[in-house]
Amino acid sequence: MKSKKLKTYAESINDCLKYLLQTNKNVICLGLGATDPKGVFGTTSGLEELFGPSRVFDIPASENAITGISIGASLLGTVPVLTHQRVDFALLSMDQIINNASKLYYMFGEKVNCPITIRMIIGRGWGQGPTHSQNLQSVFSHFPGLKVVMPSFPEDAKELLYSSVLDPNPVIFLEHRWLHNSEEKVSNEYVYKKLGRAKLINRGNDLTIISSSYMTIEAKKAINFLKKNNINCDLIDLRTIKPIDFNLINKSVSKTKRVLCLDTDFKVASISNYIISEIVANHELVSKPMVLSMPDIPEPTSFSLTKNFYNDSFDIIKASLKILNKSKLLSPFKDQNSFHDVPDQYFKGPF
């Protein structure tokens, strides 16, 4: 029976992993911290107690080795859900991901599948600095054979994780650490849906805003402000970065003829720039498109340096007004006293 219950993003992932482990004896859950008391932000809490150490287990700090072992296991019928607590740590396993997992289906003439889902935590906060704050979705999206998923809401986290694990080939599942405590009502249904569908979060005729992950939360705040000033935007939450739902994007841009693309990644060679290039090639716009993304420098550590480093709803409002040529009409106020390196008072750090 379909019902909905208020859950956090982390609880939704935890519930989905429980359901997968219960309903598919081939699913295993592993990773550094998987059985830690904090359970990877609570996403793996209690799983070892329910399913035992043969199916849910911690690993040594050996990212490349354990990724290779997981890929090998997937070729023999196991369905691994491997977790790297930070995307930065997963860089040690790039050889296995890029040269093995992504290419096996192609190299063996579609006769070999590699059903592995690799969870990676992205995002910033609490002085994580250059090597613990990166958002590398563009890196993984570059390689054929990999799907890249970035849920923004608890319901989508559950739905997309379920579909990722059931996908017959490798999926990179990116979770922004500022989302794990976010809440919404989540259904108890589990339905497989092919990856690659974006979602229209808000409807409007003035501007298309394309976003993903935590930037979708900031975009919603900005849209609420803009609505009060009779500016209405389409907000597209990508949900999957590879493949990209250009059908929905093209439909929206054909209507608004204006576009703002948001990205948590670095701007150079980014997904947002790729999306803009495709839009410009296929649409005549009435205003210059814009990208809000990270500057091309490593992310700083100190509180004072990060103060105005990251984009938020205020920056989205400013960019939207510039595209609409209404910058002089509105002057949104930004609270300079906000505690900028955590999303809310409930954020738990440091990892």
Provide an overview of this structure.
The protein is an alpha/beta fold. Helix content is 35%, strand content 19%. The strands form three sheets. Strands 3-2-4-5-7-6-12 form a seven-stranded mixed beta sheet, with helices on both faces. It has a five-stranded mixed beta sheet with strand order 9-11-10-13-14, sandwiched between helices. The protein has a two-stranded antiparallel sheet with strand order 1-8. Helix 1 runs parallel beside helix 9 (154-166), helix 4 (63-75) runs parallel beside helix 6 and helix 10 crosses helix 14 (313-323). It is globular, with a radius of gyration of 20 Å. The two termini are 37 Å apart. The model has no long low-confidence stretch (mean pLDDT 94).
Give a nutshell description of this structure.
The chain is α/β, with parallel strands linked by helices and 351 residues long.
